């Protein structure tokens, strides 16, 4: 449904029309709309109205709604990559890195609860990667930290699977408690149809080396282990 722009929106559009349109500006405005009104309010027509331009003008910068949603998710997850400003280093140990990363992902869920279900459910960069750590750069960081700290390849892959399951399980529930739908009302795309061998992994040597372990389906085993650990924890609390 098209939302008529009120006086404030029209005034904002008039002022913003003087600012050159860009992909970044479109993504930031889309993020504002979703944060305030949810994904169902986001359309190219609505976004054009908020930016003070015709909807067709947006297609110079985003190819469509699917591309826009992908850009929104990437915008939120780019902050999970290690940089010179990241407050943990290799000397702090893998535990400190995992704690930092978990709290960063949780901050995304709390700051953008309407969008987090999309972060947690959209197809990652490769079929054997798992949300919410969905980009090659973030996964390369994660696996490199573990292997540099002495983890074997299989242990690092198992830790990645356990960590992502923990994040998705906890944070989808937290986002839901803040009013977000458990599953976004968005049809998932078909994912990356390229074969694994066609992915450009030359810049991600740790992922390339661990691919056989990352692509294993151990969901039954992991479910049983997690269930046993939960039961053990409950039993300890009752002692």
CATH architecture verdict of the largest domain: Orthogonal Bundle
Mean pLDDT: 84
Strand content: under 5%
The class by helix and strand makeup works out as mainly alpha
How does the overall form come out from the CA principal axes? Answer: globular
- The number of helical elements comes to 10
- List the quaternary state of the chains: single chain
Condensed summary:
The protein is 58% helix and 0% strand. The chain has helices spanning 7-16, 23-37, 44-51, 65-77, 94-111, 116-121, 136-148, 153-177, 205-214, 219-238.
Write the layout of secondary structure elements.
Elements: H1 7-16, H2 23-37, H3 44-51, H4 65-77, H5 94-111, H6 116-121, H7 136-148, H8 153-177, H9 205-214, H10 219-238
Helix pairs in contact: 2-4, 5-8, 7-8, 8-9
DNA-binding region: 43-62
GO molecular function, one term: transcription cis-regulatory region binding
Domain HTH tetR-type: 20-80
